[in-house]
Amino acid sequence: MVVVWLLVLMVLCNGFSSIEAGLNNSAIPDSVNIGALFSFNTTVGRMVKIAIEAAVEDVNSDPSILGKTKLNVSLQEDSKYRGFLSISEVLQVMARRTVAIIGPQTSTTAHVITHIANELQVPLLSFSANDPTLSSLQFPFFVRTGPNDLYLMTAIADFINSYGWKDVIAVYVDDDNGRNGINALGDKLAERRCKISYKAPMSPGATPEEITDLLVQVALAESRVIVVHTNTNWGPKVFRVAKHLGMMGTGYVWIATGFLSAILDIDSSLTSDAMDDIQGVITLRMYTPDSELKRRFFSRWKNLTKDNNADTPLGLSPLGLYAYDTVYVLARALDRFFKQGNSITFSNDSKLSILHGDNLHLDALKIFDEGKLLRKSIYDVNMTGVSGPFKYTSDGDLANPAYEIINVIGTGSRRIGYWSNYSGLSVYPPNYSKPANHSNASQKLLPVIWPGDTAQKPRGWVFPNNGRVLRIGVPKRVSYEEFAKQIQGTDSFEGFCIDVFLSAVNLLPYAVPYKFIPYGDGHSNPSDTELLRLITAGEYDGAVGDITITTKRTKMVDFTQPFIETGLVVVAPVRESESNAWAFLAPFTPTMWCVTASFFILMGAVIWILEHRVNDDFRGPPKKQVVTIFWFSFSTMFFSHRENTVSTLGRFVLIIWLFVVLIINSSYTASLTSILTVQQLSSPIKGIESLVNGKEPIGYMQGSFVRNYLVEEIGIDASRLIPLKTPEESAKALKKGPQEGGVAAYIDERAYIELFLSTRCDFTIVGPEFTRNGWGFAFPRDSPLAVDLSTAILQIAENGDLQRIHDKWLLSSACLSQGAKLEVERLNLKSFWGLYLICGLACFLALFIYLILILKQYSKHHSKDLELTDQSSGSGSGSSHLRTFLSFVDEKEETVKHRSKRRQTERISYRGSNGVGSSINSNKGYAASSNISNSDNVA
């Protein structure tokens, strides 16, 4: 019975399984309708059509994809990218129960028909509509199957930045694709401190005359780096007109987007005239890595295009590879869609039902109910196609976009490198298995042949020949007119800064029309910072004069190379210092005096130690020895010491000490002579530190950056700062002093102060410069003129012209006593510590050797006496040993040696007297034995 029930259960399970399988199989259709909207009558369109048809045929013949389901593709012609006709054409495709559409060809059409796709929930898969704005949330059913143009513009920006160009001109078709692509390029250039200085849009139907007028305006602009972003129809016309206008010669840089590489790949038989029009142009091609699939497809391409009706062979570009892969992506997405148990159903659009009965028959359009599920399946595809690995990122773009950088040369093109979002610019193709290398050394490309058949990198900028005159602002100051002043009654200017500017401009390789415009009312010094702000506002094109380069100002404008170095200094009134009775102590500081005196006493003690045991001059009663130490040490100051040194160590130390004394005497004599004979001027202000810690008023030149610097950087209270207009007013305020309503000190730049002090000997610079600045000419940010003038300034500095201009305007007769202005500095220990160190080491070494010799003598001459003393006294304490040792050291060496010799003689004599008695007794024994022996022999 159990077996019967099991059999019934198995039958039921098989039955249900068969029913379920039948239901699933019934949900998978025999065919799926897809559409392809493209301009198939163009060269690119013919290539795409062949690639799509080949992909559909391959998918339908592969049972591993979609099983028995076939793809039915409807090829719909896009009528020359015209938006209105494109709407009607896409409606025709969608009325056929289409689940997806491959296309459109252009971003302009995509912007129009994507709204229809969103309404009917039919995915649009486009590999050529690469407008970056199509990736927004506004177009959820637009699926990009090619690289986003955002990465193309990033690659162009990196290329431009790698050559150091800052200004770019954009020539583009004024449609959605052109505007949005150029906007993306502008954003990427701005991230690299570059900019699009001029935009040249042209209408989609521009005539050759309109293109000519457009490029004439481009030729009048400053930049020579031109990016062309158009399509395959209008791009060649732009280059043909540019060639006719002479804009394809030396100095120009032309960068074309992907349209030019597509032309080179597809139309393999361009005429020689067409190739001449694009010599030296840089273009980019979507990078597709080499693979076996790609090689096999290229080998098939000749057979696929043998029925091509064109007169020339039809080439294959990356667009064709992406068109082929797009069909495969859709097929794999449908396969995944069906395997998840989904079916294809359509429903009426309630929004269109109200139009029932109209002549447009819009009620025939149906909503694809599972459109969102199919879209998700498309984004989940992860495969390897003929274009390489195919995978989507979270933002809906293809992963790892990359481009080849192509240089058009001769009758063909040459790849000079690659760009990838992974590793940037490189001469090697991107390798995603290795860590990305973003170092400057790796971001290099192969040499480029630029327009004009030159390998030299174009400067990328020229001064425009458009008749425009630069408005150069010149500060009109009421002080120090030697630097820049307006010639009375004329519009001309003269001065040191003016001559430097004129000399630099004359070295430029192009003419610069300019006009000097005075800035200021002539009654007070104008603010340089405000002048620079007017440059940023466009009122002036530059500024020439004594304008200091500061950190704050460099954030507003670009400065040239400094043509004069300067810095802030403090000027204060000085008074003559009178000598006093203690002037002889002035050469040395108190520390120097103390250390010198200590060393004199130390040297006397060291010489006494070394000479005490061998030299009678250093012996005697204690009082005499102390006097000798002091007398000897201080008499060496005048080399008048009477005591002779007899020991080797003493002479060694004395020679070094006498050398030190010689240096000290010479320095003291020179300093004292200067103090007593040279006029000494002093000031209570010692530098900026004195002013910071004080409360006295401080003067500064009106209109300069000094006030803000002292308040913001140094921390001086603004109420203490007094603006002064002219050098005369500054001198008057310094003479009055704080007590009479003047100032305690005056702060200004050294270049001004040198002129100020040239005729005013009662003032002086106190303390060192406390800033390091320079003067430069100012121009708008990223102005190439600032760079070229910097090079010219360096040239006039190297050839001596800058010095000659300086001598012409600023070399004046300085105050004759200016050299005696600064107070003579006292000699301190820092200047002599090396001598004292050598002397101290010599003393230490001599004493160490002396101690070793003493210990050796003590051990040799006094050890036995010490043993006898210990045995007789019965004690051997350390104190007794120390007293004995000190007594030994105090004794004269000759006495010690004499006593030691005498005791040695006494010991020898003592041993000799004991040895005689023993000798006599032994002789007597020997004689007796001899007598006995003789008597035996006789017998």
Automatic annotation (TrEMBL):
Family matches, as SUPFAM superfamilies: Periplasmic binding protein-like I (SSF53822), Periplasmic binding protein-like II (SSF53850)
Cleaved signal peptide residues: 1-21
Positions with biased composition (Polar residues): 928-939
Main location: membrane
GO annotations of cellular component type: membrane
Keyword flag Disulfide bond: yes
Cystine pairs: 761-815
Protein's UniProt keywords contain Transport: yes
Chain residue ranges for the region called Disordered: 896-939
GO molecular function annotation: ligand-gated monoatomic ion channel activity
Biased composition (Low complexity): 912-925
Topology in membrane: Multi-pass membrane protein
Family from the record: Belongs to the glutamate-gated ion channel (TC 1.A.10.1) family.
Name of the protein this chain belongs to: Glutamate receptor
Organism of this sequence: Crotalaria pallida (Smooth rattlebox)
Source lineage: Eukaryota, Viridiplantae, Streptophyta, Embryophyta, Tracheophyta
